[in-house]
């Protein structure tokens, strides 16, 4: 590869990374804005959980139907479509911002993210390889773009909520403009998938469950479910808990706490990358359990400081636990079926963003917030403890 081509692939790598980061940030942008919607439209906390679940359902549907199509349609094309769909959801937020509109906009945004996540991750790896670079750069940048973007979104949303004259309009207009600019830049990015003369017949993504390793697969899948349940709780309900339990109404604070959770997850993943898989699992379970105990303590004492610290500790555990779950599932995948097996883990993980959050929303309609937080923490501690223990027992003594 000549120098000009190498530079083009390297520039393309960073354009894709920026697009990935921006799209993931937009997906969590509304988190601190939900309190403003609630105040304006007078709907209860359970409605927030339904709106959040609409996003997760969109991601799951997209993962199942379109998560694999970039293998033959091309990485750049699918990323471009995902950015356009993200821009469409931004327009929906502006033009149709009652509860029904929020549900549709969040579902559409989920569709974009489901198509983008695997595509952008693969594109980054291929662009990096094309420049001759070896080592963990692509994986590290993909992690930062994914989890870092998810953490950046609430912080940016909180800033807009505090500073913008029209906080339910301005952030969406800004991100729509960002997506339009990135779409133009993506045209400069090299394609890394060779177009086939004859396209294969379309089929949804299959999910492979190896017959002799079902227990290991389900342990990894349910650990990922628990990890995403924690992320879902902090992302969707932090403003509700801050206002109702801790009597804090700052929108910036409501964005800063989820930012701390995701930033901690990304940092922990980077710092523990070279640890043995079993060590990672045990460390992750310990951190998640400690963080959730702190969440329960924060609920009972109405302590903002403890709640914020709980988010950082639990976030670190979630980041390591999810990566360990992916490594454990890949280790037991049938030959040539790793992609399908990992798709199954992702689908189970995103169910963790949906089912527990809806259950918490339903519980909030009948029970005090502190009781719900304690109950949620206890249930996830049991789930993560059991599944993490099984993963640790089966984990290979090597780095994930």
From TrEMBL:
Report the SUPFAM superfamilies cross-referenced here.
MFS general substrate transporter
PROSITE patterns according to UniProt: MFS (PS50850)
| Bilayer topology annotation | Multi-pass membrane protein
Q: Per its UniProt record, what InterPro entries does this chain match?
A: MFS (IPR011701), MFS_dom (IPR020846), MFS_trans_sf (IPR036259), MFS_Transporters (IPR050171)
Q: Which UniProt keywords apply?
A: Cell membrane, Membrane, Transmembrane, Transmembrane helix, Transport
Entry keyword ATP-binding = no
Name its cellular compartments: Cell membrane
Name of the protein described by the UniProt record: MFS transporter
Organism, per UniProt?
A: Microbacterium gilvum
